[in-house]
Amino acid sequence: MIDQIKGLHHVTSMAASARTNNKFFTDTLGLRRVKKTVNFDAPDVYHLYYGDEVGTPGSVMTYFPFPHIARGRPGAGEVGTTLFSVPEGSFGYWTERLTAAGAEGLKTETAFGENRLHFAGPDGDGFALVEVKDDARAPWIGNGVGEDHAIRGFHSASLRLRDEGATAELLKYMGYQQMDSRDGVLRLGVPGGNGADVIDIETMPNISDARLGAGSVHHIAFAVENREKQLEVRKALMDTGYQVTPVIDRDYFWAIYFRTPGGVLFEIATNEPGFDRDEDTAHLGEALKLPQQHAHLRSTLEQHLEPLEA
């Protein structure tokens, strides 16, 4: 069994408008934009990262905004909901804030004994806030949301699958343990994890396959401490029969990818070197940072890419 994974590193999704996406995550959710760069494989498209002050693994939501992309179709084989941790007693504040911002799909519920506030992102993204007592992670409060209400990082993510079996076994091999099972949802968690250490599997045998588009999660990334531990995980996965990519340098972490039995794309990402490797912490996310292989495109990209601030 793999024991190097401590929880989520980041979640990467698709969007239609970079400016709308940036406004929602910074102005509405109060997260910090910790990096403004481009898609390694499509440099004419941003890759935007939002999180806490330094982009701590387990706090980072990232986006590829493709202009004019069609909206995704929810279905089997994808991350259904990404859930953020907020302090107990926050829902009144967040309901008012999200309503004022025009967010749709607001709904409260209790699941696994936790209070949840569901809402949709600008492209219909599935999100929820979870009230968590004594989450010790430090929030970012530089965008107008006070410490009593601010997002601490991820709480969990839910996978929407037709059959939980093989993916549940994979997650258990990755160090997750079964915590509970209720109403068709299997809950797994990493003991002593990083706070973003819960995965729920929703079994929906009769739904159609998801179609990737705006509002869809492209992949979900799990955190390991460093490259040495990442290589250990890669070998263990390959020894079990998974087709895993070589290690890819993403500038702010190293990444490997593989497709799960349920169709979800998993990534294993390192906590090192971090988002401050090329920017001072006080100025994270301000300048357009380009991977070395795309540095020669700077003048063209600066003219082409949509300004994030109106």
UniProtKB/TrEMBL annotation:
This is Dioxygenase. Keywords: Dioxygenase, Oxidoreductase. It holds the Pfam family Glyoxalase. SUPFAM superfamilies: Glyoxalase/Bleomycin resistance protein/Dihydroxybiphenyl dioxygenase (SSF54593). The lineage of its organism: Bacteria, Pseudomonadati, Pseudomonadota, Alphaproteobacteria, Hyphomicrobiales. It comes from Pseudorhizobium pelagicum. It comes from the Bacteria. Residues 7-132, 153-271 form the VOC domain. One of its GO terms (molecular function) is dioxygenase activity. PANTHER family: RING-CLEAVING DIOXYGENASE MHQE-RELATED (PTHR36110).
